[in-house]
Amino acid sequence: MTTTAHTAAPLSHLSVLISGASVAGPALALWLARHGARVTVLEKAPALREGGFAVDFRGRVHRTVLERMGIWEEVCRHRTHMGRQTLVDVDDREKVDLPAFLMSGDVEISRTDLSRIMYERTKDHVEYVFGDSVAELRQGSGGVDVAFERGAPRRFDLVVGADGLHSHTRRLVLGDASRHLRHLGYYVAGFAMPNVAGLRRSARMCSVPGRMIAVSNHDGSPERGGAFLVFRSGELAYDRHDLAERKAILAERFADVPWTYAPHVLEALDALEDADDLYFDAIAQVHVDRLSVGRVVLLGDAGYGATMGGMGTGTALVCAYVLAGELAVARGDHATAFAAYEAEVREYTRGCQKISGNAGPFLAPPTERRIRSRDRAYRMLSSRFLAGFFKRLTERAADGIALKEYPGYGAGAVSAVPSLNRQA
């Protein structure tokens, strides 16, 4: 089905500011532009963010949304083809291989590649503003007056917070983050490192009580690798933007781990000193009483995020599809559309979040006994029969929504608007 200018007309009168240019924001921008809306995507970083973990899609619903977006084939062309992921002991002896789908879903892609695909699909039809952020929102009967940290104030009909787990938009409309962010007792970190273990689209993971380190290679490069660390902890007080402080926390937490005979693990800890792309955050979930306040609505991790294990990227794309579709059906009536959006996604997002609560304890069990129990579970999942059963189980949450057939949702042309991309 080809989307024409006529079918895009329902939102031609609407101006929308989307805060966040990672995944959820550009996905929503793609849909809104097809319906004729004038969309501005705001990103605090000076350019598209690089790095981050690979993300995966699984099940019928994820694939359907990617196909309707028109990017399924391109996502598949950029897939990592991640293969063998092996649990080893502290002496680097192999214990069990993990089924590829467990960690990588049906198709896995780097977050950088996914973000770039959606940016390229929208940049000629959507205004991107990099290097700026929202300072203040003031809602009125006719729109939202937005003050920016750097740019001149502007007015929009609607504002969407797609700015992640620590959403500033959510804080502006719903209050302090501590009211909505639920810490799950673990922290996770990741950074690039040399491929010292000589891996090729594979990973090696080692756990001791309350801690785990994995080294991996996702792209087949003989030079590039990555490190992935998880540790158990109560909530920590630290500056999320202080790279040296985050490195110090990791170095202290892993200093006494007895991995003397796993040289690639020691190399990962050494690489931490020079890492400039460190991701470090609590494993946490966002829980809010509502997803919208007046003309402001939350999307993706900002409204129902989980740091890992909750299929957050797939969930964000599905919910962007629903939000844009409900706005189009309501012809821009935000009160009607936001209520319908929340009704459609509330149980779906809760179901996806529910499975994320096990990520920390499964990767870094708190005791030796729990580690042995986890390893036995992995061995069972390696059997062909149980692997298929568990795959269907993990897809149940991903497929836990009946997608509507919103009008005009083809992969064809979008409304022609000039490219307005700029730096703030």
Give a description of the structure.
It is a single chain. This protein is an alpha/beta fold. The chain has a domain of 246 residues: 3-Layer(bba) Sandwich (FAD/NAD(P)-binding domain), CATH 3.50.50.60. It has 14 helices and 19 strands. The strands form four sheets. A seven-stranded mixed sheet has the order 17-18-11-1-2-7-19, with helices on both faces. A seven-stranded mixed sheet has the order 5-4-13-14-15-12-16, sandwiched between helices. A three-stranded antiparallel sheet has the order 8-9-10. Helix 2 crosses helix 10. The longest helix is centred in the last third of the chain and has 23 residues. It starts with 14 loop residues before the first strand and ends with a strand. One of its GO terms (molecular function) is FAD binding. Pfam families: FAD_binding_3 (PF01494). This is FAD-dependent oxidoreductase. It comes from Streptomyces longispororuber.
In short:
With 424 residues, the protein is α/β, with parallel strands linked by helices. It has 14 helices and 19 strands.
* Low-pLDDT residue intervals, each spanning 5 or more residues: 1-8, 411-420
- For the record, the CATH class of the domain at 9-83 and 107-181 and 285-357 and 401-423 is Alpha Beta
Q: What is the percent of helical residues?
A: 25-40%
Question: Which band does the percent of strand residues land in?
Answer: 15-25%
Give the CATH architecture of the domain at 9-83 and 107-181 and 285-357 and 401-423: 3-Layer(bba) Sandwich
Question: Care to count the β-strands?
Answer: 19
Subunit arrangement of the protein: single chain
The shape is globular
CATH superfamily of the domain at 9-83 and 107-181 and 285-357 and 401-423: FAD/NAD(P)-binding domain
Number of helices: 14
Please describe the biggest sheet, giving its number of strands, its sense, and whether it closes into a barrel.
7 strands, mixed
Neighbour order of strands in the largest sheet: 17-18-11-1-2-7-19
> What class do helices, strands and sheet pairing give?
alpha/beta
